[in-house]
Design brief:
The chain is α+β, with helices and mostly antiparallel strands and 217 residues long. It has two domains: 3-50; 58-214, 2-Layer Sandwich (Heat Shock Protein 90). It is built from six helices and eight strands. The protein has helices at residues 3-19, 26-50, 62-79, 99-116, 161-164, 182-192; strands at residues 58-60, 83-87, 95-97, 122-129, 137-139, 144-154, 196-202, 206-214. Strands 2, 4, 5, 6, 7 and 8 form a six-stranded mixed β-sheet that branches. A two-stranded antiparallel sheet has the order 1-3. Strand 7 and strand 8 (206-214) form a beta hairpin. Helix 1 runs antiparallel to helix 2 (26-50), helix 3 runs parallel beside helix 4 (99-116) and helix 4 (99-116) packs antiparallel against helix 6. 24% of the residues are buried. The structure holds adenosine-5'-triphosphate and magnesium ion (MG).
Length: 217
């Protein structure tokens, strides 16, 4: 945790202990701790967006990576009546990527998908070798490289045309507690991978977000 915030958090915890478990001020110290944690998360995200990152791309198994994200969200989804569906291409080659940064991408996308859905529906994770005419081959320097697609598809509310143009803008959000940084960060990370991100949405039917990532060789 950032230093001044760490100090505030520590002091509030001491205060909480000093007041004891039956204090009528316990509610306030809890709010302070929760909100300090939230400010810290906001700062971490802003730093992420601002700092020129050193990518460490290595050959990765995309399915293992997606499973890391899936297990984090599966229980929460099930509780809300949402089924997590996998459609992985078993012959998918390894990709070239930075594992932690890509986990962050897919975690943001899955969270958006869950936010967009009510209490039913399917959230589908799928992969394939890309045949997309625009993004199916990219130049990483040293020639053209084939790409794979990883898709996060939901059956949620969809994105209205008026909102569509702004979803990648930092701080654009339609949510009460949103920061509007999720997709800006995803866009940034995919750009660093020399990949791409594409959003297709039908209002009332759902949204498909496709990430294009380079194959490792
Ligand atoms: N799968 C989706 N279905 C419907 N709308 C979406 C979806 N993904 C993104 N959006 C829209 O795009 C906006 C921006 O998304 P983004 O992830 O950048 O920020 P956020 O989710 O609002 O906040 P956070 O910083 O917590 O991610 C959302 O507020 C929402 O309106
Ligand atoms: Mg988001």
């Amino acid at each position: 945790m950032r230093n001044p915030l760490g100090a505030i958090r520590g002091a509030v915890q001491l205060l909480k202990r000093e007041l004891g478990p039956d204090s009528r001020f316990g509610e306030y110290t809890d709010v302070l701790i929760t909100e300090v944690d939230r400010v810290n998360r906001i700062i971490e995200m802003l730093l992420d967006l601002a700092r020129p990152v050193q990518l460490r791309p290595v050959p990765l198994n995309l399915h293992q990576l997606l499973e890391r994200v899936a297990v984090l969200n599966e229980e929460g989804a099930r509780e809300r009546g949402i089924a997590l569906v996998r459609r992985y291409d078993p012959s998918l080659p390894p990709i070239l990527g930075d594992e932690d940064r890509l986990v962050q991408v897919f975690h943001n996308l899955v969270r958006n998908a869950l936010d967009a859905m009510g209490s039913s529906g399917r959230l589908t994770l799928s992969t394939r070798v890309s045949l997309n005419p625009l993004f199916g081959k990219m130049d990483l320097g040293g020639g053209q490289r084939n790409m794979v697609e990883a898709q996060v598809a939901d059956e949620g509310a969809g994105i209205p045309a008026t909102v569509r143009a702004k979803i990648f803008d930092p701080f654009f959000t339609t949510k009460d507690k949103g920061l509007g940084l999720g997709l800006a960060i995803c866009h940034r990370i995919l750009e660093e991978h020399r990949g791409a991100i594409q959003v297709e949405s039908a209002e009332g039917r759902g949204t498909i977000v496709t990430c294009f990532l380079p194959i490792a060789k």
